[in-house]
Design goal:
single chain, 292 residues, alpha/beta, Helicase, Ruva Protein, domain 3, Rossmann fold, 2 domains, 52% helix, binds guanosine-5'-monophosphate, Guanylate_kinase, transferase, kinase
């Protein structure tokens, strides 16, 4: 029989070794697939002793909710240790890790697609204008719309102003990454070509679109970062909508209805940024583009 003191020292040492492996995964020193392979080839290794939940949780970008979903998909019990998976589980986890690794390295080579959305009148336009001013090098998508230009709006800079027929043709020829009828009135859409070109050349690009569009972009390009701009409060949002003076009372009421539904969509987004101070909000968005 082993001396209990000796056994507890061994247990402490093992825990420490497991913690070191987790840190190595977290900091990117070791890639998760190589840790998993070590666990499967050596049942006494610290890697083998990691709980599957601890292992997945050490990988950047994977939190509690994702862990649950991944384990459900791969049919692995959250109580399992990495070194004690069945053959089928080993196989499915290893192909999942491989897919993720390939996807990550592709995403690193490409620029980032940052989608800024949020309820109507939250000040998306102001934040975007501030980014343009302070970061002239940042690329923006220019949407197509069927609405008329407002005073001061420039064709090709603020929007591509198109007729219904032109818009229809862009949709039919699959030139739109996403499109939506906004405020139940006009159609707005993101031309796909400039987005693909920017990302492939390694540049990041910002899309300022509505929430329906943001959802479509996430489906088409899951690597997109969805940013939800929040007003400091709901009352402030109503005040901003009523005082900006670009819409008549009927249009204001319609936009407020849309904003109420949109406000509830924030949980679908990757990041929320409160637009209390425009400079701070603008910098927060730019920071996301650099991936830090
Ligand atoms: P506005 O008419 O005030 O310029 O824009 C109205 C709304 O249309 C804003 O919420 C804006 O985010 C949204 N929007 C602008 N461009 C696009 C786009 O390309 N796609 C989608 N889905 N929404 C857009």
């Amino acid at each position: 029989m082993r001396d209990p003191r000796e056994a507890s020292l061994i247990a402490v040492e093992r825990r420490r070794a497991r913690a070191a492996v987790k840190r190595e995964i977290q900091s990117g020193v070791r890639n998760p697939l190589s840790v998993a392979r070590e666990a499967w080839s050596d049942a006494d290794s610290p890697a083998a002793g990691l709980r599957i939940t601890e292992f997945l949780g050490s990988i950047a970008g994977i939190g509690v909710v994702k862990i649950r979903r991944i384990l459900d998909d791969l049919e692995i019990s959250p109580r399992k240790r990495l070194g004690a998976l069945g053959a089928r589980q080993t196989e499915s986890l290893s192909s999942w890790l491989l897919d993720r690794q390939t996807h990550d390295s592709r995403a690193n080579m490409r620029g980032r697609l940052v989608v800024v959305a949020g309820p109507t009148a939250v000040g998306k336009g102001t934040v975007v204008a501030r980014i343009r001013e302070r970061h002239p090098d940042v690329k923006f998508s220019v949407s197509a719309t069927t609405r008329d230009p407002r005073p001061g709006e420039v064709e090709g800079e603020h929007y591509l102003f198109v007729t219904d027929e032109e818009f229809e043709r862009l949709v039919e020829t699959k030139q739109m990454l996403e499109w939506a009828v906004v405020h139940g009135q006009h159609r707005y859409g993101t031309p796909r070509g400039p987005i693909v070109a920017a990302l492939e050349s390694g540049s990041s690009i910002i899309l300022e679109i509505d929430i329906q569009g943001a959802r479509q972009v996430k489906m088409a390009m899951p690597e997109a970062i969805l940013v939800f701009l929040l007003p400091p409060s709901w009352n402030e949002l109503v005040r901003r909508l009523q005082t900006r003076g670009t819409e008549g009372p009927e249009e204001q009421a319609r936009r407020l209805d849309t904003a109420r539904v949109e406000y509830d969509a924030q949980s679908e987004f990757d990041v929320t940024v409160i637009n209390d101070d425009v400079d701070v909000a603008a910098e927060a968005v730019v920071h996301l583009m650099s991936g830090n």
